[in-house]
Structure formats: C-alpha cells, structure tokens
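Ticket #4471: structure export looks truncated?
Reporter: QA, pipeline team
Priority: medium

Steps to reproduce: submit the single chain below to the structure queue and open the exported record.
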Amino acid sequence: MTATEWITDIALILVVFRQLREDRLDLKTFLIPLGIVAYVAYSYLDGIPTAGNDLVLVTALTGVGAALGVAGGLYTRIRAVDGHLLIKAGAVSAVLWVVGMGARMGFQMWVEHGGGADDVARFSAAHHITGDQAWVTAFVLMALTEVVTRLATIHLRGRIRAVARPVPVLDRAA
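Actual output as written to the record:
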C-alpha cells in the first residue's frame, strides 16, 4: 500500500471515530467523508469492467457497501437539542464502519504482502474475473457506496427528526 492509500483509509476510519463523541449534524459531517471518497474514486476508478464475471463481483461488493452504510446510518443516534440536530455514532455503527474499511485494507495487505495474490488469481480464473481492475473497482465502489448510503441514511433520519420536532420560533413581536 502506498502512503496515500494508508492516509485515505485511516482518514475514513477516523471519520467515524470523530463521531463517537456527540457533535452537530452540519455540512462538514457530509463534506469530509464525501471529499475523501471522491478523491479515492477519482484516483482509482478508470471505468467499470464488465467482461466475464467482473460486474458480478462489482455488484456484490457494492451491495455489501450499501448494507454496511445503511446499517451504520441506522445505528447512529440523532437527537434534537436547542434547535440543532446532534449525532453520535454508536458502537455498532463504529464496528460496521471499521469492518468495512478494515476488510478492504486487510484484503489489500493480504494480496500485496501476505501471499494472497496467487489465491486471488486462482479464484479470479475459476470465477471468470478478468483482472486486477475488477477487484480495485469493486472495493472502491464498496467504500464509496458505504459512505454515501451511511450519509444518506443519516441525512434522511435527520430530516425526519427535524420535521417530527420542529425548531421553536421566537415571536419577536411579543
């Protein structure tokens, strides 16, 4: 793994750890993780491979990312205090986030340094996965989908919470 890959992976893990303490749900809640995955997507996605069973692999890991993201968003506490929405990632949300991000890091380390390259090559040949780019695309889209679906779930839950408990308006005329 390159230094840039380590930094982006660790930054994504730290995003959820930052949310282990309660904080306001605001624009930075969304922009920081979206900025990180946008950079990763720009850096590593050259297209979506569709030969052989590449698309099956990409779809499967994207689905895993979506499931992890929605679950992580559901296990993030959202509450209204003094007209502001506050969020706090729960233990389950943090574990899901680390499992998703850690699985990708672990897979990459195993392939690059743990002797897993031959195993992945045999698996790929047996399952008609045409090359490395299919794996890269699948894992990048898994991360992107996990981040986007988690944030979308938090955003929707925040909007529902805001509507359920409207912010009180002070009557300045009184």
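Status: closed, not a bug. The export was complete when the record was re-opened. Leaving a note from the reviewer for reference: The longest helix spans residues 132-164.
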